Amino acid sequence: MTEDGTDLILTDSDGNTVTIALADIAALTDTNTTNTSLTEDGTDLILTDSDGNTVTIALADIAAATDTNTTNATFAVVGTDLVITDSDGGTVSVPVADIAALTDTNTTNTSLTEDGTDLILTDSDGNTVTIALADIAAATDTNTTNATFAVVGTDLVITDSDGNTVSVPVADIAALTDTNTTNTSLTEDGTDLILTDSDGNTVTIALADIAAATDTNTTNATFAVVGTDLVITDSDGGTVSVPLANIDTNTTNSRLEINGSNLELEDSDGTILSVSLAALAAATDTNTTNATFAVVGTDLVITDSDGGTVSVPVADIAALADTNTTNTSLTEDGTDLILTDSDGNTVTIALADIAAATDTNTTNATFAVVGTDLVITDSDGNTVSVPVADIAALTDTNTTNTSLTEDGTDLILTDSDGNTVTIALADIAAATDTNTTNATFAVVGTDPGHYGQRRWYGERTGSRYRGLDGHEHHEHKFDRGRYGFDIDGQ
What we know:
This protein is an alpha+beta fold and 490 residues long. It has a domain at 442-490. The chain contains 11 helices and 40 strands. It has a 4-stranded antiparallel beta sheet, with no helix packed on it. The N and C termini lie far apart (127 Å).
């Protein structure tokens, strides 16, 4: 069905056409009303205008006329037309200019919500369009899932688990994108997940809906760079990837801290993302703990108490590491633990948070080298180990400790490059056990006893000599000058 500026033209599959003048259609068109809703009541499809008039058509008639042997394969702008192509290669098109002429550009969509029965789209004038969730569910193919979401050439392509694809030109998305606003926060209020932009507009989705749609049978197993993509692989082997080139490298994370009941991540542009601590706690698996943290081959591998592992190539970590700064001090101010680097930047964490997360029921029992690993064993017999070779590889062997001093306030360790590490004497004193004292200081087992042959050194006094112990001793027949043997233990 097309139009040539004068006539509306309907063409059938044999090339036959039926035309009607656009002027005749316009003369019969009521331009004083607009369509306000398109609904269905289970039997009919109902179109309602602004005067409350309705036009209905039986859903059964629509179904009978619908070709169910084909599906829409692509939905794209081709030249100046919007073209829908089905699975048989058939196409339906309409000029984009005609769509634009009929489009209300004075309103924008402000929210997409659901009330348990309907999906509701609301515009900036408060007008709504609804569709029953049951109808969406009935039309949804639940046998396939989206497998990849990626830019291929100049198109954004979604590929499902059957290998079918839907694509749209990236340029078309860009043309419709509002580049005057940015997302500033992603929060939740206990009921909804809320995305807020720089103009204060919000989009919300119910947490319950997210939970219902979440697959809890799989977990993310690896998070790694593969070729030119960042790839997340789950425990079933499924993958999601995004090109590294599409990741924003113009900002860096500058702050990660707890603010009230939220964990906040702030970047170098001042944009803050936050998530409630309660939501993190609810999603945290407290049945496993990290058992080892080690370099295995070329990867950094974390292994939990169930034997599950997460790994990332060491080369990827190195590529992202800032090698122009070093950590210069680790201090605390009574409230926070503070790590400061050579540029003066700081990272802080509340001492109260550290204390709350600290297991005070176990203590480190041994700290020893076992085979080729450094092993710490706690009072419950649990162990944490790291290869000694890995420690050696990371050790700076170009500097040595040159002095250990104190200035009345701090204990100061200085190396051969003049770098210092300090700790407050008050902190050392607070951590010192003053309830016990050293009782003995002795060599037990390998000390020379007072019995048996022992050589004495002393001053000769005739046939006797006085030893360093103050006693006089007789000279025996084996005269050694100033020396003799104490046979009797005198």
